[in-house]
Amino acid sequence: EQFNITSYDATALAIMTLEAFAGMWINAFIVSVICMSWVQKKTLNSNEKILLVVVCSRFWFLCISWLYSFLSITYPHFLYVHPRLQLVVSIESLLDYSNIWFSASLCVFYCTKIANFRNSFFIYLKVKIDRMVLWLLLGSVLFSLVIGIVAYEIADQVHCNNSNSTGRGSFWKANIKMDKHFFPSFFITGFGYAISFMAVTFSALLLLFSLWKHKCNMQTNSMKDISVDAHIKAMKSVLSFLIMYSINFICLILKMVYVTKKGTPVMFLIVVFQYAFPGVHSLFLIFGNPKLEKTLLRILSCVKFKVCMR
Questions:
Q1: What are the transmembrane regions (predicted)?
Q2: b/e 18-51 (16+ beta carbons within 10 angstroms → b)
Q3: For the domain that residue 284 is a member of, what is the CATH number?
């Protein structure tokens, strides 16, 4: 049975569709460029490996999240009649959490490879970081699986609370009863968000401190240091992610607070930004990578030339 879609639902769905498909195109572009480079060179460096898993997780997150939102708005009763479809919620949360942890791993990788400190432990990490990338990604996946299981439990409880009360109406106005068992789940989820946020923040601060030390050495020794340029490029990438991630982190916390208040303007803005985050930050990654930037500009120039020829 198809339900009547209100103007609020239609507006939300239109905005989410636009953001989701734009984000999927941007991330698919990065995947195609990296895969073509992989075929040509027969290998990938550590930076490209992390970047590849980041954009893949973002692509599938946008696909599944948009599909679930579409079904939730157009066929809300269908989701409650078929409780197994709540598994989609856990997969969506797993991919979203993986995206966050993979992105944090990329920032930590930039910091470890580029920052220069004389600490023996930091030097050890700099030497071993390439071998630790796969373990770093595996740890991110394991953490994400835990959050996915937690999200499935929350979705199952929401389904039980609403199975007898959900009728004809809007998905955004579904009444969700806050259960006492939600709070431990929210604590685990928020704790994971906080750890990844702290990792990104410390990476940015270490890069900034390392850059400051390099500038002091350049003034003292009156000589150029080529690593300063690498510091500046890494700082731009990490700071862009830190700014986006700070807003996203606030939205994630607000989402947990407003989970029982569907249909509010705050919840709408949270969803809109969360759909924009995977695409906008991937766009920053493109312009922070010379190879990706050149390829994108080449494609845009070709498209512009064909349009002008018509």
A1: 20-39, 51-74, 94-112, 133-155, 186-209, 238-260, 266-288
A2: ebbebbbebbbbbbebbeebeeeeeeeebebbbb
A3: 1.20.1070.10
Residue 310 DSSP code: -
Distance in angstroms (rounded) separating the CA atoms of residues 154 and 67? 19
User: What letter would DSSP give residue 44?
Assistant: -
Domain annotation covers residue 29: yes
Closest Cα partner for 186 from 237, 147, 160, 138?
147
Q: Look at phi and psi of residue 250 and say left if phi exceeds 0, alpha if psi is from -120 to 50, else beta.
A: alpha
Integer Cα distance of 182 and 189 in angstroms: 11
Residue 172 lies in a domain: no
Q: Indicate the DSSP class of residue 118.
A: -
Q: Tokens in use for 188? A: 């685990």
Average pLDDT over residues 269-285: 84
Burial class (CB in 10 A: 0-12, 13-18, 19+), 305: exposed
Domain assignment of residue 3, yes or no:
no
Alpha carbon distance 237, 107 (integer Å): 8
In a domain, 145, yes or no: yes
If residue 256 lies in a helix (H) or strand (E), which one and from where to where? helix 227-257
Question: Side chain identity at 106, as an amino acid letter?
Answer: L
What total number of domains does the chain contain?
Answer: 1
Helix (H) or strand (E) holding 40: helix 7-41
For residue 204, what are the domain limits?
Answer: 12-163+179-309
**68 and 92 Cβ atoms separated by less than 8 Å:** yes
Residue 152, token pair as written in the block:
């499935």
Please write the tens of the pLDDT for every residue from 129-145: 888 888 888 888 887 77
Lowest mean pLDDT among 56-70, 176-190, 200-214, 244-258: 176-190
